[in-house]
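quick one
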Amino acid sequence: MPLTSPKKMFEDAYQGGYAIGAFNVNNMEIIQGIIQAAEEEQSPLILQVSAGARRYAGQTYIIKLVEAALQESDLPICLHLDHGQDFDICKEVIDGGFTSVMIDGSHMSFEENINLTKQVVDYAHDKGVWVEAELGQLAGVEDDVSSEKSIYTDPDEAVEFVERSGCDSLAVAIGTSHGAYKFKGDPNIDLERLETISSRLPNFPLVLHGASSVPSEFVEMANKYGGQIEGAQGVPEEKLRRAAQSGVCKINIDTDIRLGITANIRKHFAENPSEFDPRKYLKPARQAVKDMVQRKIDHVLGSSNAI
Ligand code: G3H
Ligand code: 13P
Ligand code: ZN
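structure w/ 1,3-dihydroxyacetonephosphate:
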């Protein structure tokens, strides 16, 4: 099965009131865990690659690993660039065969963001590639993506941005943030703003970044076995379910993968101090990714049996 575009996935998701999980991938075990879960759930999938993932694994390795998954599975899979910072990286992955890119001009002025997005749209659409853009800013820090404060997306600007840039989907800022420390007190997600944006852009797919729910069992397991991940808090699952019914067709998840892997490896090291075969601790780590993704598809995304 060749890589697919998100177009049909998002049309079906929009109509069905569910969302497609976009999972960040960095290595073989992560890809295998995600694919095994989606296979069992018969769910469409987006595998996304950040600039940091591309540096870590190399574009060729990532593409070949995804090709291996496509060879062994009949799932519709889209390969997406996460947080493309400039035109060049978008062009490189489009030329390399990705079916979807994000151009992230969210740190720029409104006009600069439109111009950059439009430049990527012109190149991508010529080759049948999907373009996600971002308007507003999420707080949080990752390798290449960081912001101290969040700037919520303005609904009027969102309409103008989509019209003028020609982007295919739009990531909006409504209070989520990247990483494991999303909220200090109550999780404050502006679902009303999301509903307003969605009603102003009917049938247009929206995207939610920073959407990990930071499962407490992972945080507790990591901390029990020597971790120091205190005060971590994610987006409550019911808020994500509501977002999926309000025009959000793509929900981005990276932190939950990282937490599941790290918690299980810490546990394994603590319980098996004399072992040194990486397969012994990568196996439960891969299983944790699979279990987490399966739960996500079932309880949060609602994309089970959507193929
Ligand atoms: O939003 C960013 C993703 O979680 C990727 O993080 O840049 O550390 O690979 P990364
Ligand atoms: P999390 O840090 O909440 O997993 O968000 C990931 C993300 O938005 C990737 O683009
Ligand atoms: Zn993101």
